[in-house]
Design brief:
This protein has 805 residues and is of the alpha+beta class. Helices cover 50% and strands 16% of the residues. The protein is elongated, with a radius of gyration of 34 Å.
Length: 805
């Protein structure tokens, strides 16, 4: 058996050498399909299929405040008291810890820089993630109490690159945000936490539960479920706890729940559907490639009919010939698979580099042993699929074999027509999907965001609270910085806010309206932002009623507030009545500070591109100051040209301060669109490739059919048919071949495009314009693919054809 197999392989290699064009086309087609599928599988395998790199990862969950009942999100930050009560619920968590982002300025090694870092509560490393440092230790419980010693644990990368990997770093003091922190440990090189994975270092949160009570969002929860507790059971327990807190603390917890999610599911989020959609698209490309190669094999087998007839006459059985054909297909598949692995290695790097997704394990994606085993199975399966087609088509005995070998076919066989139809159907599904995504991306990218991003430069500043003796000192500090920036050449206006549009960096609060009962509930919820005067003008956010803030709205002035349209419509009966002049207070008690509404601002897309506006309150920064602000600068020309001067101005204002980021607002908007752009571009690319492969396949079938029907064409021309008649007949036959595929493709697209629904924006999955455009495009491609063979058939010399006969 092995001798026979080796002989079949040698024969296959010799036959491929004799047919170089067929071999190159077939191998490249297979390599393309296998390489693309290997690349996307390598990403899916690492991100979705492999366990997270922590001990017992199935028990890891995220814990959030659920504000969906009050028009918020089901994933909102917890207050310190919520974290305490949530984590101490009996039998729910083995341990629940909290974390939040931290961006300290680092002084002492090189220039002043801003680090990507995080704060965590005690037990995050030792009990939740169960990871130990390679040097030193992690945090003690007493270091996580208010007023405790300030300590840090370093990432291996930061320790190696910024501190030269010095073992004596332990015990050393680092200046972070004007405060000294003692280094107590270094984490392993492979450690990537599920939060802020690129963090340079971590410190303790030192949360004070009494500082701001239960209405103070401060941390996000990551926990390890108690043994035997499922996600469903944890959600039930969390719901019961939320109900208890709502009864005990109605001012802060009425309408507020708790939510629990599997850690991997929470980290991956909507990227799961994106990745599976891409794998489906790549799979379609592989199927189209298989059909193309099967068609090539079938055409080649027709030309080899005399060879097969002679071999059968000499005693070769049907099994022997099928084995030979299968061996040839497997050899083609293996060669294509080897080339596909090389293509996959490049494509994997390209996918990871271009993917605008922050996913667990994405930085570790590679074509490793698991992926190679997948590729091997895929390669062998591919070889069998397109190898069986010509083999199964063979039937009958020796006499029939000779009869078929000597016969002139007059048109494409039913099998070849079915293969073309399947190609067209697969391409139709991909083209419809790409068309829907293109329309969706256009709708999303042209959506009114409520502000003007062109010509605006943004920078994030976070000044340590320890710098200021009082909140008003922080307001004065930023006023002086804004004046310095406004004096720069090329700067038109400067404003600042605690939360930029599209960043969603907000907190919400209850409010009451004086002498007015609010609909739905006794008090409303709104997202709170502090802004400086000139903010609305600088960002290009319109005021639909009233006025903007001015420099007169300082700490000594009467308290004022601006509401957005969503709040005014939902709670203040706008636009039937003008809410300017109404008075509101935060909280539900009438003893609070009453603020006069002086304006109504237009809505903005604040949390993400796809999400509409939520009710919002804008306060003058002088009356509600913050130490962390996003500064926005409207430039006369290109805002990027101001980057260096802005950094210099900040350094001159405060040598111990550096901006976290300096980026044009247009780039932030582009970043918010990046995922949609990536998926749309990739699916469009492969839809175009599918269209080309289908056109090539159709061209091959029509061209082969025309070559076999030259005698018929010559006779028709000799009997008086015109060249246009011949051309029309060939094009019509191509459209007849394409029509069943288009029909099947429409049905398939209607059945499968539902998987795209989560990726679409303001476009129905049954969009008639997309379907009609795709049908028209495929018809045009069918005409174009058949035009060259049709022209060749129309120009044949009937005398020469008849003389050959």
């Amino acid at each position: 058996m092995m001798d026979d197999l080796w002989r079949d392989i040698r024969f296959a290699l010799r036959s491929f050498v004799r047919a170089p064009t067929f071999t190159v086309v077939a191998v490249c087609t297979v390599a393309l399909g296998i390489g693309a599928n290997t690349a996307i599988f390598s990403v899916i395998d690492r991100v979705l299929l492999r366990p997270l790199p922590y001990d017992a990862p199935d028990a890891l969950v995220t814990a959030w405040l659920d504000g969906s009942a009050r028009s918020g999100s089901d994933r909102e930050e917890l207050s310190p008291l919520d974290l305490r009560d949530y984590g101490s619920e009996p039998g729910l968590f083995e341990r629940l810890a909290g974390w939040s982002e931290w961006a300290p300025t680092f002084v002492g090694v090189g220039d002043v820089s801003v680090l990507t870092a995080a704060v965590v509560t005690h037990g995050m490393f030792s009990d939740v993630l169960r990871v130990q440092p390679v040097l030193g230790r992690t945090f003690l419980s007493e270091e996580d109490r208010p007023g405790g010693e300030r300590t840090v644990v370093l990432s291996h990368r930061f320790w190696r690159e910024r501190l030269a990997g010095d073992p004596s770093t332990l015990g050393r003091a680092l200046t972070l945000g004007d405060e000294p922190f003692t280094v107590i440990g270094v984490m392993p090189q492979t450690f990537r936490p599920p939060f802020v994975p690129e963090a340079a270092l971590w410190t303790t949160a030192q949360l004070d539960p009494q500082r701001c009570g239960r209405g103070c969002p401060a941390v996000r929860g990551v926990g390890r479920l108690a043994e035997g507790v499922s996600i469903a059971a944890a959600r039930g327990r969390a719901g019961a706890l939320a109900q208890q807190l709502a009864e005990g603390y109605p001012l802060t917890h009425r309408g507020v729940g708790f939510s629990v999610f599997d850690l991997r599911e929470d980290l991956v989020g909507t990227a799961r559907s994106t990745l599976w959609t891409l794998l489906g698209a790549f799979g379609f490309i592989l199927m189209i490639a298989c059909v193309n190669v099967a068609n090539l094999q079938l055409s080649r087998s027709v030309d080899r009919r005399p060879e097969f007839a002679l071999r059968e006459a000499l005693g070769a059985g049907r099994f022997t010939i099928m084995r030979q054909l299968l061996a040839e297909s497997l050899v083609l598949a293996v060669i294509g698979g080897v080339l596909g692995i090389g293509l996959a290695a490049w494509a994997t790097d390209a996918l990871v580099g271009l993917a605008p997704l922050s996913l667990p394990g994405l930085d570790q994606v590679s074509v490793d042993g698991r992926v190679l085993r997948f590729t091997a199975v895929l390669t062998l399966g591919t070889g069998v699929v397109f190898g069986l087609v010509p083999g199964l088509r063979r039937r009958g005995g020796v006499d029939q074999a000779f009869t078929v070998a000597l016969r002139h076919p007059t048109g494409p066989s039913a099998l070849r027509a079915a293969l073309v139809a399947s190609q067209v159907a697969l391409a139709m599904v991909l083209l419809v999907g790409a068309g829907l995504l293109i329309r969706s991306f256009h709708e999303l990218s042209t959506e009114d965001l409520g502000f003007r991003s062109e010509g605006v430069l943004t920078l994030r500043l976070d000044v340590p609270e320890s710098r200021f003796s009082s909140p008003s000192a922080g307001a004065v500090y930023y006023e002086a910085l804004i004046e310095r920036l406004e004096a720069m050449p090329g700067v038109l206006t400067v404003g600042a806010t605690t939360s930029l549009p599209l960043t969603g960096n907000d907190r919400d609060a209850r409010f009451r309206v004086q002498d007015r009962a609010l609909p739905e509930q006794a008090s409303g919820f709104a997202w709170v932002r502090s802004v400086t005067d000139e903010y609305f003008y600088t960002i290009g956010q319109r005021l639909v009623e009233g006025r903007e803030f001015t420099d007169q709205d300082d700490a000594a002035a009467s308290p004022v507030v601006i509401v957005n349209e969503s709040l005014a419509r939902r709670y203040l009966d706008y636009p039937r009545r003008n809410p300017v002049g109404d008075r509101i207070t935060l909280g539900e008690l009438a003893s609070g500070t009453w603020r006069t509404i002086v304006g109504v601002a237009g809505d903005t897309r604040h949390f993400e591109m796809r999400e509409g506006a939520r009710p919002a309150l804008y306060f003058p920064h002088a009356q509600l100051p913050s130490t962390a602000l996003d500064v926005i600068i409207r430039a006369a020309e290109d805002p990027s040209a101001l980057t260096a001067d802005v950094r210099t101005a900040v350094a001159e204002h405060d040598a111990m301060l550096a901006p976290t980021r300096v980026i044009p607002m247009a780039d932030l908007v582009g970043g918010a669109l990046e995922r949609d752009r990536f998926v749309t571009s990739l699916l469009t690319l492969f839809a175009a490739l599918a269209l080309v492969l289908s056109a090539v396949g159709l061209y091959g079938v029509v061209s082969y059919s025309v070559n076999r029907r030259m005698r018929e064409m010559g006779v028709r021309l000799a009997l008086g048919a015109g060249g246009e008649d011949i051309r029309r007949r060939v094009v019509r036959s191509a459209l007849i071949l394409t029509a069943p595929g288009i029909g099947l493709g429409v049905v398939g697209a209607l059945a499968l495009t539902g998987a795209l629904e989560a990726l679409l924006y303001d476009v129905p999955v049954t969009d008639p314009l997309t379907f009609a455009s795709t049908v028209g495009l495929l018809s045009i491609v069918a005409v174009a693919a058949s035009w060259i063979p049709a022209t060749r058939a129309a120009s044949v010399d009937p005398v020469a054809v008849l003389r050959e006969e």
